[in-house]
Specification:
- There is one protein chain.
- The chain contains 18 helices and ten strands.
- By secondary structure, the chain is an alpha/beta fold.
- Strands 2-3-4-1-5 form a five-stranded parallel β-sheet, with helices on one face. The chain has a five-stranded mixed β-sheet with strand order 6-7-10-9-8.
- The longest helix has 51 residues.
Amino acid sequence: MEVVLSAAAGDLVSRFFSFLMSKYSDFACSEEKRVERLQQLLLRAHMVAEEADRRYITNSGMLLQLKMLSSAMYHGYDALDTFKRNQLIKECSKEVTVNDSFESYLCTPVKRFRVNGGTSSHKVDNNCDLQDALLKLETVLSNMTEFVILLSGCETMMFRRPYDTYVYADNFMFGRQTEKQQVINFLLQHNPLGSPSVLPIIGGSLVGKKTLVKHVWNDEKVRNYFSSVLHFNGDNFCRIDSESISRRTLVIVTFVSDVDEEEWKSFYQAVTCISTEIKVIIISRMESLARYGTVEPIHLSRFQDEEYNYLFKTLAFGSAQAEDHPKLTLLAGEFIKLLRGSFVGAYSIAYILRMDLNLQFWLSTLKRFKHVTKNNLTVFGEHQSHNYRASYPIDVTDFLPSPAAPLHLMHPRTEAEISQRKLPKIRIQDIVANPSLRPKGDFDLVAWESRIPPYTEFCWYVSSSAQQQQPETTLRRKRAVTISL
């Protein structure tokens, strides 16, 4: 009897292990198939989105579908990157030695992310995230048949999109496809009320409001429709001159504060008396100004995390393939976490990284950038991206490979100050590459120069005095800041 029981037990154990091996093999095969399927769907989604970017789309339902497609596409790219990153992490975990190797350096922050899951965008559930991304893309693409058919009937834009995604992202407006189409549709349609139409574009600091308007104005169809464009601000918009405005004119007004009702009525009446075919665009951070619009306002916000991640990696690797640099891809995730969605920071840091796709260079740059972030959190109680938007000082001394003197970025100089006193100007990437190029005395430091209209130059004033000026409001409201870099 014991022999029978022993044989039966042995058979059960053998079958159990066979079952586990079969399940593991099926899971590995299933995961591999998910990755392959996701890559195929991303190719299809990117193809449709790229074609839509060169068409005039007037159908509001199609624009909604396009927005859903873009969201699902960037989520898919992020899920795929997360999967590859976690695969590399597993490999690094097996190769960690007692030495301070690259593998141990990479695995340390990942272990921290797993402990502090709420403070990082790094995900570890590959299977769940891949499945979620697949489901979203499959759902969206399965409903795109009518979209593609209707898209083929939409008029084609004259502009030719570059083949290289990096060239496109660096030299053209990235994203905002739906918003761009909405502004174009607003400008090209006849005013339905027999009076000038007003479109408010509302958004926070440095989200691309002016860039969006300028990009739309450069569209050939828009430029042919309007005879001229006039720019005003909150100080001079009431002094509109009827002689300088033709029948079809685009009027762009930028406000930094709220506007009195009577002043707006006076301005709108003056515009109406000139021509009912005039179009007015309001650009502001103030949500209250949306009340002056005759159509629904367009709200611009910061990019979603997945879209921001895609933009940064595209800029950082340039014309190179990120797949050829898996370890650098993992480091790119570290930079993204430190940048906290800063648009200017993404272009500035990516430009520096793109200069040298060398592992040690990226590690050194990341280490210095962490020091800058930690120092600004300690001294000012705020991340440097917040100080940038608020025009507070930023200490970037530690970002230089071998700083000879403190480097404190003060608020940008006004146009009047620039005209009164010309100072040397240098780009931050040039100083990083060669600190000896730093000018003597005061100078202007260019964090980033936009290559697309209106060609904004993000510049900071650097004083020769080494004294660190700190905003009283920030220092007085000392608050607890968690630093985990």
